[in-house]
Amino acid sequence: MNPNMEEITWSDWLDCNPETVQRVPENSGVFMMHAAMKILYIGASPNLRKSIMDSISNSCTKDAKRFKYSEQKNWESLKEQLIKEYQQKHEGKLPKCMC
Length: 99
Prior knowledge:
Strand content: 15-25%
Shape: globular
CATH superfamily: GIY-YIG endonuclease
Number of helices: 3
Low-confidence stretches: none
Order of helices and strands: EHEEHEH
């Protein structure tokens, strides 16, 4: 694991619904979405609330059951690192909704 990853403080896994997403801050950061304990999507955004809200109505990620997020200033590079680490654990494959 990259030493920078240990510094990430994630939210709890939260239910994917508009009421829960409304409580997400409008700050920059990274997020993950899953269904059946499989990561569907790894995202990053200058506005977490907007991006997660958009994702819960996306044709692929709408099936996500839960999400977690972390507020981060370096969200773009952190997303790339999270994707690389996911690929290392999954034979080079991307999450289902990132193919």
